[in-house]
């Protein structure tokens, strides 16, 4: 089967790759490009562990074909920090101990980034709703919500 040539932007960098027509964006990111931050939790779009931002829209990369990234902007967890400088959300997740095993963390961080980009001052209810597509089996959700609230306050002041 012939590959599909894709030219896209990932985390601000121009990227070209070949993928199979039925290959998911998650598989392309992990297996072809070495961006292993997005995790495969379910493969059906139910857990949010593979979340990325595609053209300013939060998506589960397990439900998007790699070929669909053609000409589009993709943001992954690898693009959140700037060198050694963590994104405020990453810093607050550490400070609030809002992670344990780490499988869900990249998806939560990307979902929270998307939420705060669209709503810089969310209520607790809006945070819980905005993160509802992400599942955590270890921490529960209170520490995650508190970390997002704290990051929102920091980001508003920056």
TrEMBL record:
<protein>
    <submittedName>
        <fullName>Ferredoxin</fullName>
    </submittedName>
</protein>
<keyword id="KW-0560">Oxidoreductase</keyword>
<dbReference type="Pfam" id="PF00111">
    <property type="entry name" value="Fer2"/>
</dbReference>
<dbReference type="InterPro" id="IPR036010">
    <property type="entry name" value="2Fe-2S_ferredoxin-like_sf"/>
</dbReference>
<keyword id="KW-0411">Iron-sulfur</keyword>
<keyword id="KW-0408">Iron</keyword>
<keyword id="KW-0479">Metal-binding</keyword>
<dbReference type="InterPro" id="IPR002888">
    <property type="entry name" value="2Fe-2S-bd"/>
</dbReference>
<dbReference type="InterPro" id="IPR012675">
    <property type="entry name" value="Beta-grasp_dom_sf"/>
</dbReference>
<dbReference type="GO" id="GO:0016491">
    <property type="term" value="F:oxidoreductase activity"/>
</dbReference>
<dbReference type="GO" id="GO:0051537">
    <property type="term" value="F:2 iron, 2 sulfur cluster binding"/>
</dbReference>
<dbReference type="Pfam" id="PF01799">
    <property type="entry name" value="Fer2_2"/>
</dbReference>
<dbReference type="InterPro" id="IPR001041">
    <property type="entry name" value="2Fe-2S_ferredoxin-type"/>
</dbReference>
<feature type="domain" description="2Fe-2S ferredoxin-type">
    <location>
        <begin position="4"/>
        <end position="80"/>
    </location>
</feature>
<dbReference type="InterPro" id="IPR051452">
    <property type="entry name" value="Diverse_Oxidoreductases"/>
</dbReference>
<keyword id="KW-0001">2Fe-2S</keyword>
<dbReference type="GO" id="GO:0046872">
    <property type="term" value="F:metal ion binding"/>
</dbReference>
<dbReference type="InterPro" id="IPR006058">
    <property type="entry name" value="2Fe2S_fd_BS"/>
</dbReference>
<dbReference type="InterPro" id="IPR036884">
    <property type="entry name" value="2Fe-2S-bd_dom_sf"/>
</dbReference>
């Amino acid at each position: 089967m012939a590959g599909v040539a894709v030219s896209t932007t990932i985390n601000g960098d121009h990227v070209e790759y070949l993928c199979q027509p039925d290959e998911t964006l998650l598989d392309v990111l992990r297996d072809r490009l070495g961006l292993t931050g997005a995790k495969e939790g379910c493969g059906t779009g139910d857990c949010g562990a593979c979340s990325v931002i595609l053209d300013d829209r939060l998506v589960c990369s397990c439900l998007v074909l790699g070929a669909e990234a053609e000409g589009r902007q993709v943001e992954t967890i690898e693009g959140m920090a700037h060198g050694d400088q963590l994104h405020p959300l990453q810093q607050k997740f550490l400070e609030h101990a809002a992670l344990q095993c780490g499988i869900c963390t990249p998806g939560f961080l990307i979902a929270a980034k998307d939420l705060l980009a669209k709503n810089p001052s969310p209520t607790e209810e809006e945070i819980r709703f905005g993160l509802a597509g992400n599942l955590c089996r270890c921490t529960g959700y209170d520490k995650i919500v508190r970390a997002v609230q704290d990051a929102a306050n920091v980001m508003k002041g920056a």
